[in-house]
Design brief:
mainly beta, three-stranded antiparallel β-sheet, single chain
């Protein structure tokens, strides 16, 4: 596979409001993956984003393009099961996350030290995850994969406040995150006469350990 990536970080002292006490922080990430020749990118090497290191208001690895998987049904002898209404082989359709082959994210923070190891940050995260290259038949499970356009290449964003407390013994911050998600999926998808509501959270509270970037 070819898997180029970019990760750019920038930290600038705030000379205008706090006279150098506070810090503006910026992080830009991007990755792309593609297999050589006629091979395909394995499912576990595709991108699933979200979580405290990309878009904080969403669960980890919860942001992915969705697709309809159509798989033929077979009997115990391996013969296709025929639908008596249509005379064609029966096909089972299901809604699945397929992961993207391209993603980009941007995180912006305004970091304010309060006292000692305690600090607070106002943040804004945004990003997208998309399927750029067609997914070949049978590469993710059996049957065909049809990516749903309304879930592909959709921007998600999250904003809020994060409190950090650094313990010297572990040299990593304990983080309490309060997030609101202004851009999120809020729709329903119909597959095989069944409706699946896609309701990503409008707000979230997380506790984690480690640095945002």
């Amino acid at each position: 596979m070819i898997r180029p990536s970019i990760d750019y970080k920038r930290f600038v002292s705030d000379r205008w409001i706090s006279h150098g006490r506070n810090v503006f922080a910026l992080n830009i990430q991007g990755q792309y993956v593609r297999a050589y020749g006629n091979s395909t990118v394995p499912f576990f090497d595709r991108f699933f984003i979200g979580g405290e290191n990309t878009i904080r208001g969403f669960d980890i690895r919860s942001i992915s393009p969705l697709a309809i998987s159509a798989s033929p049904q077979y009997d115990s002898r391996g013969n296709p099961i025929i639908d008596l209404k249509t005379g064609l082989p029966k096909v089972v359709q299901s809604l699945i996350p397929v992961g993207g082959d391209t993603f980009g994210s941007l995180s912006f923070e305004y970091r304010i030290p309060i006292a000692g190891p305690l600090s607070v940050s106002a943040f804004y995260d945004m990003g997208l995850n998309r399927v750029t290259n067609a997914i070949p038949k049978g590469s993710i499970g059996a049957g065909t994969i049809s990516v749903i356009d309304s879930t592909n290449d959709v921007i998600r964003s999250s904003t809020g406040v994060e409190f950090q407390f650094v313990l010297p013994m572990v040299n990593a911050p304990f983080r309490l995150i309060f997030a609101f998600n202004p851009q999120r999926l809020n729709q329903s998808i119909t597959v095989n006469h069944l409706s699946y509501p896609l309701r990503e959270p409008s707000k979230d509270i997380k506790f984690t350990v480690g640095r945002s970037f």
